[in-house]
Design brief:
Blueprint (H helix, E strand, L loop, with lengths): L3 H11 L5 E4 L9 E4 L4 H10 L7 E10 L2 E13 L2 E13 L2 E10 L4 E9 L8 E3 L9 H11 L2 E3 L33
Parallel strand pairs: 2-7, 8-9
Antiparallel strand pairs: 1-2, 3-6, 4-5, 6-7
Length: 191
């Protein structure tokens, strides 16, 4: 089986305009994954399934992840004029990472005995642009799991054949797996 770097290189060779980034996992497994741009996601997924060397023909798991915004303080050296002379001083700058949602796919090759290959799709934000392309047309096993992410995280999967709630009732207004979710007061819940 090919390494993650080799798989990434094959994708980039087949789709030169695509953005593919290797993303480390902060968990103890430290397993790497590929972040794929949304514009080419479905074509890349079909390539991963159909390429003779890869044959990732089975999506075993799809899950949603909520990444709230976070701030990190970074020390940088800046040149400033102090008392009429240019001096290099150290400043602390706060860098903000915007919030986003992800769909994480675990792929296996039943034909070649390889995997998992983990690919990620990332939304532009958590509010107005929580939209990703559906990979259900490529791997039918994603259908219910993408519906679950839609229902619990609020990600709309464009091109999904049957995108509707799967766990919550139709009138439910929120997304219970988001980290900022506040459950309603018990006597207000009326399914």
């Amino acid at each position: 089986m090919l390494t993650l770097e080799q798989i990434s290189s094959r994708i980039c060779a087949a789709f030169p305009a695509a953005r593919v980034e290797t993303v480390p996992n902060a968990s103890p497994s430290a397993q790497l994954s590929l972040l794929i741009d949304n514009q080419h996601a479905r074509e890349i997924a079909a390539f991963l399934r159909d390429d003779r060397e890869l044959r990732f023909d089975y999506a075993s798991n799809v899950t949603g992840v909520d990444w709230p915004s976070k701030s990190v303080k970074v020390k940088t050296k800046v040149k400033k004029i102090i008392d009429g002379a240019e001096k290099e001083v150290e400043e602390t700058v706060e860098q903000k990472t915007p919030a986003f949602l992800e769909a994480v796919y675990h792929l296996y090759s039943m034909a070649r005995g390889g995997g998992p290959l983990i690919i990620r799709l990332r939304t532009a934000d958590r509010q107005d642009h929580a939209v990703l392309p559906s990979l259900t047309p490529v791997w039918r096993s994603c259908e219910f799991q993408e519906r679950e992410i839609f229902d619990l995280f609020g990600v709309t999967f464009e091109g999904h054949p049957d995108l509707r709630r799967i766990l919550m009732w139709d009138e439910f207004q929120d997304y219970p797996m988001r980290k900022d979710y506040q459950p309603p007061v018990e006597n207000e819940v009326n399914p």
